[in-house]
User: What shape does this take?
Amino acid sequence: QEPAGVTVIGLGPMGRAMAAAFLDRGHPVTVWNRTAARADGLVARGAVRAADVGEALAANEVVVLSLTDHAAMYALLGPAAPALHGRVIVNLGSDTPERAREAARWLTGHGAHHLTGGVQSDPSGIGSPGSSTFYSGPEEVFRLHRGTLRVLTDTTYLGEDPGLAALYYQLQMNLFWTSLLGWLQTLAMAGAHGITAADLLPHTETESLAAMFRYYSPRIDADDHTGGAERLSMEVASVGHVVATAAEAGVDTTLPSALLALSRRGLDAGYAESSFTSLVRILAKPSD
Ligand code: NDP
Assistant: This one.
């Protein structure tokens, strides 16, 4: 079977990597980008540059969107809406689950199919094994085009709800950004003492975090926050020492102070002798 033609709209670092991956695998590729020059390298490699969004939509059934957010999608596709009929719009731009559902309704209203995707890779992982993308939307549409989408990354299909892939993506992003900011805070504190990121790397233990996720997940799902050797009161004392160490180093204390404030709300709620995981109950509600 001949590789299917694909249109890629949005040629930031991700869209360019995606169009290149399709070209590498012999797919005919049509591209369009607001800043036309970003398509030059791809056109030199054999991609077709569409003159406008309507032409890009008309070129292929499968249209991959790699835009900053859904607002960009409406800005681009709105004026070309009649050309949406019969297209499969694979929306790989990040946005909220509710906006993904809204986008699916809007696209379905124009006679298009919509697949939401949440890519768990940076551009360097596109087209190489090991990374995966969350997808949700009509299962039949996904199955029909899974082979083409696998050119980009492996696929993880989550269900019909178009919001699901966006939700799983944002859940990963929350963990990603909070972890990375925690690391940067650590580096700022280390840097104040002349310790570099490279110095610290051999002592940066991430395996123990993965082990904790595995150990605590079934307990959290069972709403079991029984404290033992580890208790929230101990965690609050420990985070207090982190705040004081950051203050002594003369670096910003916003992040550890926020952790301390959250943890103290757990004490106020009576969880001092419970596991620190009881904080998930605090986090499950908006703060007053
Ligand atoms: P960029 O923000 O660099 O590229 C976004 C693209 O959207 C560009 O082609 C840009 O056009 C276009 N665009 C933005 N606003 C408009 C608008 N109003 N009208 C027309 N075009 C618009 O993003 P990336 O390529 O890095 O990422 C694309 C998506 O993938 C984002 O949603 C991002 O969150 C997600 N993602 C990115 C990852 C990464 O590592 N970069 C990893 C996983 C997901 P122009 O070139 O003209 O500015």
